[in-house]
Inverse folding.
């Protein structure tokens, strides 16, 4: 069979070949297409599908240190789930995660957009300042966390010393008061997130044709009107991307909080991320950790669905 | 573009790609059943710090020569020893010796991962009972300590002398002295009430010396200890930042002259000594009333033999532990790390060498292990306690916070 096709000159078309070839060729073509998709599918199943399913299964199992030895992880129904949901810490962590995510996104996006708009103007040192603002992005998260922990120290921190010098109190318990710590952590995260937002939004702003602005100024549109009717609609795809990526990296926050407050004081900065970590790797209760992990995945999934729908309506 | 040719190319690419996918999947699914080299033994520890890694490397080199083996050192950060060991257990690639922090050892023992050291002919002769218990879980001796440590009161000699104060020995004295020593940017005392094991380790001596107990966090004695801490904050002798400090941060504060006294452990001595003009002294942690015993928490690591299939290797692993915890090695290690040798004879020799750490050696003699009573449940108790003292130090009442902690510690696994 293969010899016939191999030796058959391409141009030669007999009646028989005409009947059989299209069907066979279509089959082959389809196989070829699947062949190209297969590696991606295998990769997805192996590295995304399997862990996901495993995590869901694990949340219904009694998975403890001894499981690593005897391989036994008996199913325990909804025990892990009810245990996690009955712990007040879960409700607290969920609330903190929501506040943290929304607060961070508003701050990062707002300041990022303002800076991006600012840098579209021509002025001396524009490029230099723009690259300077990228700095927080270049510093590893843990390093930022440790440095900020020092800056925000109540007694010896630079921020309070500075506040004292300019006569603004100087004894703010940034990270040491349960009522204040979450706010401070959000502020630090905003600082970290500004460069990313600014760079992407700046890129998006550059893409908007200048003629449109010229036209709007000829029509006598106000700055606000120009922003609302030209900048915002044309920037929308970029905004969606920035917000979705920002959401994904914010909702799962762990490293920054571990470096800044370790979830404290008095659990006031515990998020779903730190709770998963605490359950799985401090208490070694992997079942409970998996439950919190699943909740985190569910939240991301819901958001992803919204994102896809928004994109679909855009494509139409 | 005739069809047959396209079809042909399609098939060959299909074949190639399928083979490739199969290869990827195969590689990922093949287990990691690496064979063990009979002459090479591994010790897993948390000596990632350059000096500790060096000291352990020297010890292992001497033991390698003595036993005629090759002993390799694998170091991972302290927080990862447990996770790494568990992963190695499930892939059947456990090292021959694991050095666990003593508070983690019960978890691994509870899971059935450790071998009784006595069954491997490791004797506990000359080791004080407290330290044998420290390395035991449910009565079985699983972990041999080389050195142990505990907490003590460190004080700045110059500052105390200038203020004309003696080293405090009771809670009242410490509170008064701390109050007097607080001026300007200098606090009377620094300690760690951080939201991790550090804070719990530091709270333990106050809780225990006051007669409190981790099995009953809601008891009045635990609340009394916590109220004492609250009092220090109320007097402003202790910075409110304490809830965000690790023990290393506390040491930084003390070295920077921001605190006249601190609660800390001997592992800080190496750092303290780098500042030549800092004259520090060390004393037992003050007790509620004169005559009470000062009970500190025993800290440190223990050497364990994980359960592998190969009993022959386990016997050799025990020999490695015997060499690593021999009197000679204990003294060497203690000299380097400023911790107290576990062996009584070694401790006596060491005491003569470093009389300035006498108070620490005394404190070790009465110190208690954190896991002796609650065993593998310690991590739950510890998490509940952290949350409780942080709540109390930032406003809540000690009783309410501890009552909640007790219910959390018992409802959890």
């Amino acid at each position: 069979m293969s010899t016939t096709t191999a030796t058959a000159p391409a141009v030669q078309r007999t009646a028989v070949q005409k009947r059989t070839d299209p069907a066979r060729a279509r089959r082959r073509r389809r196989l070829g297409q699947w062949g190209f998709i297969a590696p991606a599918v295998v990769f997805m199943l192996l590295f995304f599908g399997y862990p996901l399913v495993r995590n869901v299964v694990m949340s219904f199992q009694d998975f403890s240190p001894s499981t690593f030895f005897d391989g036994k992880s008996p199913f325990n129904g909804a025990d892990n789930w009810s245990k996690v949901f009955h712990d007040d810490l879960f409700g607290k962590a969920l609330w903190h995660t929501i506040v943290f995510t929304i607060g961070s996104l508003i701050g990062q996006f707002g300041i990022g957009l303002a800076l991006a708009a600012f840098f579209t103007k021509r002025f001396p040192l524009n490029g230099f300042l723009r690259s300077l603002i990228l700095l927080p992005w270049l510093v590893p998260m843990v390093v930022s966390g440790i440095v900020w922990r020092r800056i925000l120290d109540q007694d010896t921190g630079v921020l309070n010393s500075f506040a004292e010098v300019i006569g603004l109190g100087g004894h703010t318990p940034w990270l040491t008061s349960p009522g204040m710590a979450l706010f401070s952590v959000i502020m630090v995260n905003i600082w970290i997130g500004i460069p990313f937002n600014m760079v992407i939004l700046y890129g998006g702003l550059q893409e908007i044709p200048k003629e449109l602005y010229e036209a709007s100024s000829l029509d006598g549109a106000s700055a606000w009107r120009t922003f609302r009717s030209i900048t915002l609609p044309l920037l929308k795809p970029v905004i969606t991307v920035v917000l979705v990526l920002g959401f994904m990296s914010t909702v799962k926050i762990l490293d920054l909080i571990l470096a800044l407050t370790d979830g404290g004081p008095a659990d006031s900065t515990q998020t779903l991320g730190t709770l998963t970590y605490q359950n799985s790797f401090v208490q070694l209760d992997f079942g409970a950790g998996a439950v919190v992990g699943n909740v985190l995945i569910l939240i991301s999934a819901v958001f992803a669905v919204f994102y896809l729908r928004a994109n679909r309506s855009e494509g139409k | 573009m005739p069809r047959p040719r396209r079809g042909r190319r399609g098939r060959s690419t299909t074949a190639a790609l399928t083979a490739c996918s199969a290869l990827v999947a195969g590689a990922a699914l093949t287990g990691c059943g690496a064979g063990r080299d009979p002459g090479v033994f591994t010790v897993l520890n948390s000596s990632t710090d350059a000096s500790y890694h060096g000291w352990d490397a020297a010890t292992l080199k001497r033991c390698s020569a003595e036993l005629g083996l090759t002993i390799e050192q694998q170091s991972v950060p302290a927080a990862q020893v447990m996770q790494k060991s568990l992963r190695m257990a499930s892939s059947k690639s456990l090292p021959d010796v694991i050095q666990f922090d003593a508070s983690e050892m019960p978890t691994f023992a509870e899971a059935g991962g450790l071998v009784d050291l006595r069954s491997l002919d490791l004797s506990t002769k000359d080791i004080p009972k407290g330290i044998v218990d420290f390395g035991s879980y449910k009565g079985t001796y699983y972990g041999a300590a080389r050195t142990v440590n505990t907490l003590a009161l460190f004080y700045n000699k110059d500052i105390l002398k200038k203020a004309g104060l003696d080293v405090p020995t009771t809670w009242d004295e410490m509170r008064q002295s701390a109050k007097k020593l607080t001026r300007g940017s200098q606090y009377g005392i620094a300690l760690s009430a951080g939201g991790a094991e550090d804070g719990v380790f530091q709270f333990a001596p106050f809780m225990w010396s006051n007669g409190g107990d981790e099995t009953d966090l809601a008891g009045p004695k635990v609340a009394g200890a916590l109220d004492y801490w609250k009092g220090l904050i109320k007097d402003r002798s202790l910075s409110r930042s304490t809830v965000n400090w690790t023990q290393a941060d506390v040491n930084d504060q003390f070295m920077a002259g921001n605190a006249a006294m601190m609660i800390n452990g001997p592992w800080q001595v190496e750092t303290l000594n780098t500042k030549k003009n800092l004259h520090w002294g060390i004393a037992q942690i003050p007790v509620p009333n004169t005559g009470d015993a000062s009970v500190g928490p025993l800290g440190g690591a223990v050497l364990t033999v994980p359960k592998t299939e190969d009993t022959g290797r386990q016997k050799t692993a025990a020999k490695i532990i015997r060499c690593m915890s021999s009197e000679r090695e204990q003294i060497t290690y203690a000299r380097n790390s400023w911790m107290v040798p576990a062996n009584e004879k070694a401790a006596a020799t060491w005491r003569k060498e470093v009389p300035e750490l006498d108070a620490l050696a005394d404190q070790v003699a009465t110190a208690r292990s954190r896991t002796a009573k609650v065993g593998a449940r310690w991590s739950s108790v510890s998490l509940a306690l952290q949350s409780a003292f942080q709540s109390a130090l930032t406003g809540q009442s000690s009783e309410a916070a501890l009552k909640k902690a007790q219910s959390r510690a018992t409802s959890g696994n």
Residues 2-43 of chain A form one domain. Chain A touches chain B through 55 residues (CB under 8 Å).
